[in-house]
Design the sequence.
């Protein structure tokens, strides 16, 4: 990808790639590596920083003075958006959606919610039963009528502009992997910008690495179709070949009862990564994503000769809002 897309520096790139030697030995499968996108730097780091480096210039180009975005209560995306706005001197308004039923007060107030406010964002909880995007659009209309210039960033920063961040990530991976040793990339698949960006990057750079998405929300068919459509839009935007439908593979066995709802596999994966590698996963994305990778290894999905790269999308700040989900 050339430099025709405007970008603002918000993070530390390229992020490290490290071998998970203890875990590889413990799981007795392929060699596992980790792409440390939890180390992007902005507001404790995370994958959304890559997207915001391209989204925020578009907000400035549109003369915005208010950035509006949405997410679940413990959204990593909203935290990083609030931080990017603070750095660039823009107001930030966040509309949060309640997706976890009967959540304790710590879930509603600590973790990312607390950090959203620390970074100066205005935080509004979407009323139950209302569509969060429609609610945000109604607020934006009011603010526009009051003379403000709002710019909307979709959930997860997942659109064709946000995808550019993960096309760049794929370039970093390919430049690191000069011997073409990686056989698979495994990542959590949610709003879709990260997964589709990796697919667009795979297409652009003609990579042979197999991409596996672990869904954290939708069934595999719907998620695959969404990722394919987004990758088509991304490839068209950067003017490269059409992505291949067969390059998109999603497993939905690790969602549990729903988005953001803890599972035993997630808590086991978080604990295993912490005790074997001293790396903190998050309870919504990377925890369920790595739980999927563990299960696939145990089901002999990979050959012992494979080299698997797991993309850590960050979000450990949310653990403070999920202490109740972990057995003491």
Sequence:
């Amino acid at each position: 990808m050339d430099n025709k897309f405007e970008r603002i520096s918000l993070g530390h790139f390229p992020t490290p790639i490290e071998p998970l030697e203890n875990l590889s030995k413990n799981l007795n499968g392929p060699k596992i590596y980790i792409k440390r996108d939890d180390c992007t730097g902005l507001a404790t780091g995370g994958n959304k920083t890559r997207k915001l480096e391209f989204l925020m210039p578009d907000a400035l180009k549109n003369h915005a003075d208010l950035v509006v975005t949405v997410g679940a209560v413990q959204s990593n995306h909203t935290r990083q958006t609030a931080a990017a706005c603070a750095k660039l001197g823009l107001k930030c308004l966040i509309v949060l959606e309640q997706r976890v039923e009967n959540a304790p007060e710590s879930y509603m107030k600590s973790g990312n919610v607390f950090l959203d406010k620390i970074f100066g964002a205005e935080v509004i909880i979407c009323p139950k039963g209302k569509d969060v995007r429609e609610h945000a659009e109604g607020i934006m209309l009011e603010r526009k009528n009051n003379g403000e210039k709002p710019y909307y960033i979709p959930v997860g920063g997942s659109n064709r502009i946000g995808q550019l961040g993960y096309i760049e990530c794929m370039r970093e991976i390919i430049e690191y992997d000069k011997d073409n040793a990686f056989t698979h990339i495994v990542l959590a698949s949610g709003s879709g910008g990260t997964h589709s960006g990796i697919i667009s990057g795979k297409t652009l750079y003609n990579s042979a690495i197999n991409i596996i998405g672990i869904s954290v929300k939708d069934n595999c068919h719907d998620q695959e179709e969404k990722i394919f459509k987004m990758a088509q839009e991304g490839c068209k935007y950067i003017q490269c070949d059409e992505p291949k439908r067969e390059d998109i593979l999603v497993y939905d066995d690790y969602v549990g009862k729903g988005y953001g709802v803890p599972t035993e596999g997630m808590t086991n994966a978080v604990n295993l990564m912490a005790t074997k590698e001293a790396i903190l996963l998050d309870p919504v994305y990377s925890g369920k994503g790595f739980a999927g990778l563990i299960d696939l290894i145990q089901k002999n999905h990979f050959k012992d000769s494979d080299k698997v790269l797991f993309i850590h999308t960050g979000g450990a700040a949310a653990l403070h809002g999920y202490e109740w989900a972990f057995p003491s």
